[in-house]
Write a structure and sequence with these properties.
By secondary structure, the chain is α/β, with parallel strands linked by helices. The protein contains 14 helices and 16 strands. The protein has an 8-stranded mixed β-sheet with strand order 3-2-12-11-13-14-15-16. A 6-stranded mixed β-sheet has the order 7-6-4-5-9-10, sandwiched between helices. A two-stranded antiparallel sheet has the order 1-8.
Length: 359
């Protein structure tokens, strides 16, 4: 077991409000000097937050499903919240467990087993997340292909070499035409036990397309070590998420940010809020632990001088949209936002998660 980690102090020093430049970040230096000691201490602190111990051990094995779904003490706590013009859909952790159990058990009965290559051909949403978690429950290696042009989808399907393609009637026709075996992304809830699988250290858990690479149509393998530990770190340290908190990343780039952000949210017992298309006034009235802003919301906040009124604990500038620095600086000094902790981050899901964090 590592030394206790003072997360409150770390979180404070990761933001504009609390950063005491040029003091050194000693916790960061220690993490590089003795990685095992650091990760053990972080998992110990994580277990205290969730009231139940983790079943994952750094550099040995990782049980994503137990840590993301099964050890959340309060099954009534919201895990996912989807808001649209048609209404609202909320999955609490108990409901999500049943949904994932139904799909995972169906997949196992259909021939999925540990190491099976699965390609998920879906836009981001409830089906995408249930398919992600069902894949982790069965021990599969999961690749995500966003629906787009026929030629691009064909190339990515070919390069992902799937044993099964997970899709629905709307997006799965192309995969059927190519002769791939199709699995449904969402079978429905069941009271049957939720399967779980411990990925050994070094085992591939994802094969992800990196839009920042020159060969962006060739998937990159992400090991269980990288995927799990990055999600743990990003959620606890960079976003400061604890059980009961809410995080949102409106209009985030699917390939750059997912599944890294959703895993960082669920592994830390928090709520993912998805409400693309809502304006800044709607977002300003949401109680959020953290929000990753894109240029659309930035411009709306600047043009309307919308008042957030301390409903956000932390706002983040998306460093993938690094242009117009003067506009981001204007936002940081505007109205109520200048009184709220702020930072900037860049995610690359194909490299595990957050790759750059800045004040």
């Amino acid at each position: 077991m590592g030394e206790p980690i003072d997360l409150a102090q770390i979180n404070q020093r990761m933001t504009i409000e609390g950063f005491d430049y040029p003091r050194r970040q000693k916790w960061l230096e220690k993490s590089w000097a003795d990685p095992m000691k650091f990760w053990l201490a972080l998992i110990e602190r994580h277990s205290m937050s969730c009231n139940l111990r983790s079943k994952s051990m750094p550099f040995q094995y990782y049980d994503f499903i137990y840590d993301a779904l099964q050890r959340i003490d309060n099954g009534d706590s919201p895990a996912l919240r989807f808001v649209s013009d048609q209404g609202e859909e909320v999955f609490n952790y108990g409901t999500l467990r049943k949904e994932v159990a139904g799909t995972a058990n169906f997949w196992l009965a259909s021939g999925v087993q540990p190491g099976t290559n699965i390609s998920v051909l879906l836009p981001f949403g409830a089906e995408y997340i249930i398919a992600l978690l069902a894949g982790l429950a069965t021990g599969a290696t999961i690749c995500f292909i966003p629906p787009s042009g026929t030629l691009l989808v064909n190339k990515r399907l070919e390069n992902s070499t799937p044993d099964f393609v997970v899709s629905n009637e709307l997006y799965g026709r192309l995969a059927i035409e190519k002769g791939f075996s199709i699995l449904p992304p969402r079978v429905g809830p069941t009271t049957d036990p939720l399967p779980s699988f411990a990925y050994p250290s070094g085992a591939p858990v994802f094969r992800l397309f990196d839009p920042c690479q020159q060969r962006e149509n060739l998937p990159i393998e992400v090991t269980a070590d990288v995927a799990f530990l990055s999600a743990l770190r990003d959620g606890m340290i960079f976003l400061g998420l604890r059980p009961g908190d809410t995080f949102a990343a409106p209009d985030c780039h699917l390939l750059e940010h997912q599944p890294a952000l959703i895993l960082a949210t669920l592994i830390n017992g928090a709520t993912w809020l998805e409400a693309n298309g809502k304006d800044c006034r709607w977002w300003a009235n949401q109680n959020l632990r953290a929000i990753l802003l894109d240029y659309r919301l930035r411009e709306e906040l600047l043009e309307t001088n919308c008042h957030v009124d301390f409903k956000w604990d932390l706002w983040l500038r998306n460093l993938s949209q690094a242009g117009s620095l003067d506009r981001w600086q204007a936002l940081a000094s505007q109205g109520s936002l200048k009184e709220i902790a702020g930072a900037a981050g860049k995610w690359n899901a194909a490299l595990g998660g957050a790759i750059l964090w800045s004040m």
